[in-house]
């Protein structure tokens, strides 16, 4: 229920007006987030033990969806990259760049997007994308940069598998000039872990440790606190609603990093990431495209590189028709 608050509040409010309150790091708000995370993790772990299957649910159509997942990931990442390059911003609307650095990095973002769409020098573009994210650690506040770590996960997948590969199990041949060999399994685990970090960072910087910016967003968009606005529950103030949303997002990030019942975690994420799209400007959809593709990718593959048998499209189609 509290997850209906938009994840990236800084996309619609000026973060310079609402600095992170570092005095809240060692506070009951942080403790509540940690307790909720460990409680959720314990529930998932117990469920996984009972099910004896880390990839549950094994729905018969998921292997069919896995075909083309690398292409979907690369192309949906390319769209906001190109848009960011022409603004110019570094990977997110609130990370604005001034000239001449902005023009240079913007051109790099456009070229990376072009490479991800066409497959030309895709692995070189993946390296450049990861370096852009790391550069953000030098140019912007640390939590803002950490919120972009899902881009490194995307870069790992493109680097390990290749843009033109149709399936994780059949990676494109890696050129000999590349300095490092990376397995698809390692890339998939990296995508999951780094996306978890990217989900946790705004939960801290825009809600748990920064209640002011979350309340400013809710003031401008009062309908998002639907518990108060539509259900008439006066106890749920904007401050409490923002804290509940931040705790939920932080816990989701922790559970995603853990790799426990990843498909269940992804399904739980799907509604919060989609519910806000109709009610906010187009940038909400635009900059969530990589997250949608990542959720799709992790849903079809589970916690890590699932067995080839599960991802055999011919066998899956036969089972689906047979049922």
Describe the structure.
This protein is an all-alpha fold and about 325 residues long. It has one domain (about 1-320). The protein contains 14 helices and no strands.
Characterize this entry briefly.
With 323 residues, this protein is mainly alpha-helical. The chain is 63% helix and 0% strand.
The profile of the biggest β sheet is: none
- Element-level helix/strand string: HHHHHHHHHHHHHH
Into which percentage range does the β-strand content fall?
A: under 5%
How many domains make up the 3D coordinates? 1
- DSSP summary, beta strand count: 0
Radius of gyration: 20 Å
Overall pLDDT level: 86
The portion of residues assigned to helices is: 55-70%
Assign the structural class, choosing from mainly alpha, mainly beta, alpha/beta, alpha+beta, or little secondary structure. mainly alpha
Give the CA-CA distance, first to last residue.
35 Å
Low-confidence stretches: 1-5, 313-323
User: Counting H and I runs of at least 4 residues, what is the number of helices?
Assistant: 14
The rough form would be described as globular
Throw out a few tags for this protein.
single chain, disordered C terminus, 323 residues, mainly alpha
């Amino acid at each position: 229920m509290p997850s209906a608050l938009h994840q990236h509040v800084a996309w619609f409010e000026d973060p310079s007006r609402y600095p992170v309150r570092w005095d809240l790091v060692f506070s009951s708000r942080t403790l509540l987030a940690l307790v909720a995370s460990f409680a959720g993790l314990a529930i998932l772990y117990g469920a996984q033990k009972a099910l004896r299957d880390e990839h549950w649910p094994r729905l018969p159509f998921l292997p069919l969806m896995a075909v083309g997942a690398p292409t979907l990931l690369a192309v949906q990442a390319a769209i906001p990259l190109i848009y960011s390059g022409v603004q110019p911003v570094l990977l997110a609307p609130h990370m604005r760049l001034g000239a001449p650095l902005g023009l240079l990095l913007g051109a790099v973002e456009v070229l990376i997007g072009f490479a991800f769409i066409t497959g030309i020098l895709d692995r070189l573009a993946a390296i450049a994308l990861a370096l852009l994210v790391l550069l953000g650690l030098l140019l912007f506040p640390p939590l803002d940069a950490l919120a972009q770590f899902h881009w490194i996960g995307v870069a790992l997948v493109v680097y390990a598998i290749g843009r033109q590969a149709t399936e994780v199990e059949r990676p494109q041949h890696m050129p000999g000039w590349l300095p490092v060999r990376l397995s698809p399994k390692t890339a998939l685990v990296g995508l999951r872990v780094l996306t978890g970090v990217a989900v946790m960072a705004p939960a801290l910087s825009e809600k748990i440790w920064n209640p002011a910016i979350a309340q400013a967003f809710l003031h401008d968009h009062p309908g998002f606190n639907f518990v108060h606005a539509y259900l008439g529950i006066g106890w749920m103030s904007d401050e409490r609603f923002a804290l509940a949303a931040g705790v939920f997002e932080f816990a989701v990030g922790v559970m995603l990093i853990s790799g426990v019942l990843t498909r269940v975690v992804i399904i739980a994420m799907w509604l919060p990431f989609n519910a806000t799209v109709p009610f906010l400007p187009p940038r909400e959809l635009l900059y969530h495209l990589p997250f949608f593709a990542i959720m799709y990718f992790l849903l079809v593959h589970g916690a890590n590189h699932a067995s080839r048998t599960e991802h055999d499209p011919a066998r899956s189609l036969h089972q689906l028709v047979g049922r």
